């Protein structure tokens, strides 16, 4: 996301701006796909705009206080 | 025990809002989503040494969150969203350009998608990941992600065209113009 901002955005644009070649080259299909893209992003961005809830800042503060010792020490790698 | 580099810590914090939005789309519940994000943060800090600086941090965090969700998912099914739906519960403002009714229909349709299609659509269509990054996160081939996204938007298109053709299709004026153009 950080590394590939432009690529990510172009994939997003591609996912919604272009009508799929199979089966739906109509104006109606394009219109619906554009709406789907708008709705999906509006819904998602509404959560993103809420920022970082306090519980997570509290959690990070606790982790800092623990001096790098995390409550979870299962060493599970990327799970 | 390694301490986390401050700039890396800041980057992790910056990713939290996106992780929440993704978690809500996966779990169908805000409470469940916030628990998932918390587990993800604990896991990330505990295993920070396995993150290679310079690689894609958001993708790494999304992968952890998705894996946590999947391992839990085997134990219990996706929670049925509360009557107003998980995303509705988070709505603080009326998003621009859309009516509440549009949203109702959209959320209902989104909930009907198979989870693998929904997550692919969200990663590419909302989180802003490339197909390649989404494939890494979902541990599948790029072609699989593309096909899931295509099927998701096709299915959504069908559901929305049927359920709410007037709101999602062209309005009467547009239709008239289109008809005129074809004539």
From TrEMBL, chain A:
- Please give the residue ranges the record annotates as the region Disordered: 1-29
Note the superkingdom of the native organism: Bacteria
Question: Which residues are in the Anti-sigma factor NepR domain?
Answer: 33-66
Q: What protein is this chain from? A: Anti-sigma factor NepR domain-containing protein
From TrEMBL, chain B:
**Superkingdom of source:** Bacteria
Domain (RNA polymerase sigma factor 70 region 4 type) spans 104-156
PROSITE patterns the record matches: SIGMA70_ECF (PS01063)
Sorted UniProt keywords: DNA-binding, Sigma factor, Transcription, Transcription regulation
- Start and end residues of each RNA polymerase sigma-70 region domain: 17-78
The record's listing under InterPro entries reads: RNA_pol_sigma-70-like (IPR039425), RNA_pol_sigma-70_dom (IPR014284), RNA_pol_sigma70_ECF_CS (IPR000838), RNA_pol_sigma70_r2 (IPR007627), RNA_pol_sigma70_r4_t2 (IPR013249), RNA_pol_sigma_r2 (IPR013325), RNA_pol_sigma_r3/r4-like (IPR013324), WH-like_DNA-bd_sf (IPR036388)
Tell me which PANTHER family the record gives: RNA POLYMERASE ECF-TYPE SIGMA FACTO, RNA POLYMERASE SIGMA FACTOR RFAY-RELATED
The Swiss-Prot or TrEMBL record describes its family as follows: Belongs to the sigma-70 factor family. ECF subfamily.
Name of the molecule in the record: RNA polymerase sigma factor
Taxonomic path? Bacteria, Pseudomonadati, Pseudomonadota, Alphaproteobacteria, Hyphomicrobiales
């Amino acid at each position: 996301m950080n590394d590939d901002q432009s690529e990510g955005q172009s994939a997003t644009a591609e996912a919604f701006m272009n009508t799929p070649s199979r089966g739906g080259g109509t104006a109606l299909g394009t219109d619906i796909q554009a709406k789907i893209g708008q709705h999906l992003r509006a819904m998602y961005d509404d959560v993103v705009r809420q920022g970082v809830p306090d519980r997570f800042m509290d959690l990070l503060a606790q982790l800092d206080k623990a001096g790098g010792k995390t409550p979870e020490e299962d060493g599970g790698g990327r799970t | 025990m390694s301490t986390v580099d401050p700039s890396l810590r800041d980057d992790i914090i910056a990713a939290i809002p996106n992780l929440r939005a993704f978690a809500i789309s996966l779990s169908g519940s805000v409470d469940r989503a916030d628990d998932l994000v918390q587990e993800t943060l604990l896991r990330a800090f505990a295993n920070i040494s396995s993150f290679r600086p310079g690689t894609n941090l958001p993708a790494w965090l999304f992968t952890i969150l998705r894996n946590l969700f999947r391992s839990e998912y085997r134990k219990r099914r996706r929670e049925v969203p509360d009557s107003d739906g998980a995303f509705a519960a988070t709505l603080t403002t009326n998003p621009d350009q859309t009516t509440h009714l549009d949203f109702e229909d959209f959320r209902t349709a989104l909930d009907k998608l198979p989870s693998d299609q929904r997550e692919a659509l969200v990663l590419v269509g909302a989180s802003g990941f490339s197909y390649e990054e989404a494939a890494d996160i979902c541990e599948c081939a790029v072609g699989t992600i593309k096909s899931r996204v295509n099927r998701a938007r096709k299915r959504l298109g069908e559901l929305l065209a049927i359920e709410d053709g007037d709101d999602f299709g062209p309005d009467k004026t547009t239709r008239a113009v289109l008809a005129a153009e074809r004539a």
